[in-house]
Amino acid sequence: MSKINNNFSNYSSWHYRSKLLPVVYPDKTQPMGVHEEALLKEYELVQNGFFTDPDDQSNWFYHRWLMGRGEQVQEGNCIVVSRLDNSAIISFTKHIQVGNHADIHFEVNGSKLDHLTWHNADRSPFFSTMWITYDLCLPKSQECSIKATLIENNSEVCSLYLHLGDTDDSKSASSLTSTGSSRFSQELSALKSETLQQELQSILELMEIETDNKWVMLTIVLLMKALDPIKYEADIMTSLDKLEALDFKRINYYKDLKSKFIIENILDVAAGSIVSSVDLKEKGLTKLYHTELLPLVTVLDLTNNQLRDIQHFNYLQSLTELKLCGNYIESCEGLQHLPKLEKLFLRNNRLSSPLNFHQLQSCPRLKYLNISENPICENENLIEGLRELLNNVEITFKSL
Question: Which domain of life is it from (predicted)?
Answer without folding.
Answer: Eukaryota
